[in-house]
Design goal:
By secondary structure, the chain is α/β, with parallel strands linked by helices. The protein has 2 domains: 134 residues, Glycerate kinase, domain 1 (Rossmann fold), CATH 3.40.50.10350; 222 residues, Glycerate kinase, domain 2 (Alpha-Beta Complex). The protein has 15 helices and 13 strands. A 6-stranded mixed sheet has the order 3-4-5-6-9-10, sandwiched between helices. A 5-stranded parallel sheet has the order 2-1-11-12-13. Strands 7-8 form a two-stranded antiparallel ribbon. A hairpin with a 2-residue loop joins strand 4 and strand 5. Helix 1 crosses helix 15. The chain is elongated, with a radius of gyration of 21 Å. The two termini are 16 Å apart. This is Glycerate kinase. Keywords: Kinase, Transferase. InterPro entries: Glyc_kinase_flavodox-like_fold, Glycerate_kinase, Glycerate_kinase_RE-like, Glycerate_kinase_sf. Belongs to the glycerate kinase type-1 family. One of its GO terms (molecular function) is glycerate kinase activity.
Length: 380
């Protein structure tokens, strides 16, 4: 066992700049530059959105890749992670904004079929517990594509399979979930999300997140009506539980895929960072740490709503371990940072005020921050 201080580096990604693993790597280089024999453990984290599979792989899961249907129908290579009987499936890998050809948004047509295909691949790999991380979705289809890929029959008035996307949900006439993959009945599915929005209404999937997927005001209204119709048809087929799930926490996550998972897959909802810390073995790593370094690209009001750094800080605080945060951009007041559990915060913008250069040079800047943390906390 190391005689000196032990540091746990557990950041989320710096979106658009560095993966969580790269952030941790550069911080570790800086720390060890200042203190060559410092005991450092790296455990990148995620809250269910993009980067979740990478975090699982960094924690020791095996990465598997399959070809699935992308959000607008073109094939994509998508990864999931497995360890023992647990699989981590990240919807952004198959149905995320980053999977849209040439980045062209398709708010009415994008679907989630590929996510269902990823879940099927996880079942084929022997998973009996599936952590479904949602976030970064290109679609507002209520998980209809996912359910169809897993055996549900969603038909229009002419008895044809429903077209992909949230817009066509208005044409749904019948829903039959009896053909869902029978392995799901003996598989625990846990929905991991950093948002707890309901499916419908002013805080629902279409109103809050539709514009992020390219929907204008008219398309948002159409998607809202389509999701409402979809939920009514599912309630006729499944029963009262489908109606109750409309207002359940997480139903509106990732374009309503949370609703599809709750109704069709029997999923339970848990805050993403809480669940992922458990899956990644954070408690065991934390028990051996004297200082934790976490962070993400922007520390702002969204961070305080259950993003990864706040989850890390909360867990560390329960163990009495001090936490510092690093970020590219800082948009919180000192009292907010202290209230969130951060003893000190380091922003790359303090070293490089130009945002474009800060993002491009994030690695070297993080190494400088690592050196400074070593000095500030007397880690020798």
């Amino acid at each position: 066992m190391a005689a000196g201080p032990r540091v746990l580096i557990a950041p989320d990604k710096f979106k658009g700049s560095l993966t969580a693993a790269a952030v941790a790597h550069h911080l570790g280089l800086g720390l060890r530059r200042a203190v060559p024999d410092l005991a450092v453990r790296v455990l990148p984290v995620a809250d269910g959105g993009d980067g979740t599979v990478d975090a699982a792989v960094a924690a020791g899961f095996e990465r598997l890749e399959v070809e699935v249907t992308g959000p607008v129908g073109t094939p994509v290579r998508a990864a999931f992670a497995v360890r023992g009987g647990t699989a981590v499936v990240e919807m952004a890998e198959a149905s995320g904004l980053s999977r849209l050809p040439r980045g062209r948004l398709a708010p009415l047509e994008a679907g989630t079929r590929g996510t269902g295909e990823l879940i099927a691949a996880a079942l084929d790999a022997g998973a009996r517990r599936i952590v479904l991380g949602v976030g970064g979705s290109a679609s507002t289809d209520g998980g209809a594509g996912m359910l169809s890929a897993l055996g549900a029959r969603l038909l229009d008035r002419a008895g044809r399979p429903l077209a992909s996307g949230g817009g066509p949900l208005c044409d749904l006439a019948t829903a039959d979930l009896s053909g869902l993959d029978p392995r799901l009945a003996t598989t625990e599915v846990v929905l991991a999300s950093d948002v707890d929005n309901p499916l419908l209404g002013p805080t629902g999937a279409a109103a809050v997140y539709g514009p992020q997927k390219g929907a204008d005001s008219g398309q948002v209204a159409r998607l809202e009506a389509a999701l409402d119709h979809y939920a009514r048809v599912l309630a006729d087929s499944v029963g009262p539980s489908a109606a109750d799930a409309v207002s359940a926490p997480g139903a509106g996550a990732a374009g309503g895929i949370g609703y599809g998972a709750l109704v069709g897959l029997g999923a339970t909802f848990r805050p993403g960072i809480e669940l992922l810390l458990e899956v990644l073995g954070f408690a065991e790593a934390l028990a051996r740490a004297d200082l934790v370094i976490t962070g993400e690209g922007s520390l702002d009001a969204q961070t305080l709503r259950g993003k990864a750094p706040v989850g890390v800080a909360g867990a560390a605080r329960r163990w009495g371990v001090e936490v510092v945060a690093v970020c590219g951009r800082l948009a919180l007041e000192p009292e907010e940072l202290l209230g969130a559990g951060f003893a000190r915060t380091y922003a790359l913008s303090a070293l490089e005020p130009d945002p474009a250069r800060s993002m491009a040079e994030a690695g070297p800047l993080l190494e400088r921050v690592g050196e400074r943390i070593a000095r500030d906390f007397a880690l020798r």
